[in-house]
Amino acid sequence: MKIIEEALAFETETMSNMSTSDRVHASRRAKALILGLNDVYKENKDEEIMDLMKRLTAKKQKIEKRLKGRP
Q: What b/e readout covers 33-53, taking b as 16+ CB neighbours within 10 angstroms?
């Protein structure tokens, strides 16, 4: 389950001192990870995967808030 490992690594990364381009890249990476996890979830229906997707979505929303100029 390579995508789950990538998602867990992304979740633990710090998001401080990021440039705007880094935030855009992180947001796109989070979206790709969430969509990949969704495909795995459709097959397994594992609640842990759903919880991981929810945590990644929350992190993605925080990044996007910052991108739109609301600190």
A: bbebbeebbeeeeeeebeebb
Rounded Cα–Cα distance for residues 59 and 47 (Å): 19
**Domain regions of the chain by residue span:** 2-12+29-67
Amino acid at 11: E
Are 23 and 67 in contact by the 8 Å Cβ rule? The answer is: yes
pTM of the complete model: 0.88
Write the pLDDT tens digit of every residue in 1-30. 799 999 999 999 988 888 999 999 999 999
